[in-house]
Amino acid sequence: MSRILIVEDEAIIRAALRRLLEKNNFEVEDAASVDEATRRFKLEDFNLIISDLRLPGAPGTDLIELAKSVPVLIMTSYASLRSAVDAMKLGAVDYIAKPFDHDEMLLAVRSILDGKTNNPVQANTLQTNTNAGQTHILGSCAAMQELAKRITKIARTHATVLIQGESGTGKELAARSIHEQSDRAHIPMISVNCAAIPESLIESELFGHEKGAFTGANVGRSGLLEAADGGTLFLDEIGELPLEAQARLLRFLQEGEIRRVGSVHSKKVDVRLIAATHRNLKELAKQNQFREDLYYRLYVMELRIPPLRERDSDILEIADQMLVNACRRMNVTNYHFSHEARQAMSTYRWPGNVRELENAIERAVILAEGSLITLDVLGLDIPKASLDELETQFAARIPEPDATLSTEEQANLSLDDYFQRFVIENQDKLSETELAKKLGVSRKCLWERRQKLGIPRKSKKQANLL
Predict the structure, then answer these.
(1) How far apart, in Å, are the Cα atoms of 175 and each of 121, 154, 232?
(2) Pairing label, strands 161-164, 301-304
(3) Sorting pLDDT into bands at 50, 70 and 90, what band is 388?
(4) Residues 21, 28: contact at Cβ < 8 Å?
């Protein structure tokens, strides 16, 4: 079980975060300040430290040096997001903006504990021309192999990249892989979710502002584009960017320079931009919700991440690796999926894609009574196939009647009776694919009808003989 230390002075946030992490099977301790944390605990005993940036007394960034080899995740408000970038340069493994939702926090924690997030201190020791990225995107289907080849080619250039794909497909992993294989890998990639930052703050956060530019701007601040100078800026959900900010971003892409809010002076910056969206930007441009000229500036190189339902051969490979990762985090061993669970994962549509699969496996490991992950604990919302559609498919190609039955008995058989009898009598000599073909239905329909009628599968030993 991974041990996590929370350092946060606001008791409500500290308690809520502790409950969230403990509910997800992490061992948690907490403190209200850096002084209390170092006085009560040995920092090296933890697998991760989550600390607020601004604390009474010493700032949370002091824990980076004090904790030495332990990764530190910095929490910060949107107003001090720029300071969080400075924290990353000091060696923080990542930052997360408050207020955050539970899924966002858990995703960040799991990514760090799984080693998917680069520590900038370690990244600075890499050679500038490194081409050995550390982020590994699972998948051996043709679409993912082609994606990996394309990422390798794109990484060698400085071209702007637009990554398109449904939510949960791994767009940020693809962006990180591009960055890690580029000559900018020695500088941490800065990631920004455009949908998560209030519209009133987005321009200031991206481009910075001068003192007095707006109410509350008591000091001048550089923006995230300046902070990413020499490296890579990843803008997730760019389709949510306000039109005013889009105009500023277009100027940056055209001229390679930015101007802070409230300033009359421009500044040159060298930043590679990678953008991602689950929305159709071309359609948004037709509806005047996204600048068409910006769309074509972004569309220099395009990557499409296929949804999980289009990666049939990858689903179980990804699930097996996620199960290994989940077991390691929870300090358990030898967990495995039941045959029915594997079959369900193969046929399920996965509307939430890889993120949904990871959450389902995490939940299953927590709820499983023993080491066997069954279909029940996966908790998948598998809709029943349309009975009328299934029966139409089935009736269209009914095999020859069983010769052992009399004509009267055959006439009295219902469709379900016939289905059950045919499957039980033929499953020992036919594979699932062959059975489905004989019945004129898909493997998914065959599996769902088995579930409905309670028809047991043949044993694994018999299956291996086919």
Answers:
(1) 20, 11, 9
(2) parallel
(3) very low
(4) yes
Name the residue among 153, 160, 269, 295 with its Cα closest to residue 207.
269
Which tokens belong to 36? Answer: 């209390």
DSSP one-letter code for 209: B
User: Which residues share a beta bridge with 97?
Assistant: 76
- The answer to which of 58-72, 85-99, 332-346, 452-466 has the lowest mean pLDDT is 452-466
DSSP state of 188: P
Helix (H, G, I), strand (E, B) or coil at 75: strand
Termini Cα distance of the chain? 41
pLDDT tens-place string over residues 64-81: 889 888 999 988 764 455
Interatomic CA distance for residues 235 and 100, integer angstroms: 17
Sign of the Cα pseudo-torsion (408, 413, 415, 419, in order): negative
Contact 318, 139 (CB under 8 A): yes
DSSP state, 61?
A: T
Residue 204: HSE in the Cβ half-sphere, 13 Å Cα cutoff:
23
CA–CA gap between residue 158 and residue 345 (Å, rounded): 39
List phi, psi (to 5°) of 444.
-65, -45
Are 78 and 206 in contact, with CB atoms under 8 Å apart?
no
- In whole angstroms, give the CA distance from residue 211 to residue 156: 39
Task: Please list the residues that pair with 274 across neighbouring strands.
Answer: 161, 234
- Return the structure tokens found at 14: 């500290």
Instruction: Give the pair of three-digit tokens for residue 263.
Output: 């300033």
Beta bridge partners of 98: 77
DSSP assignment string, 216-246: T--S-B--HHHHTTTSEEEEETGGGS-HHHH
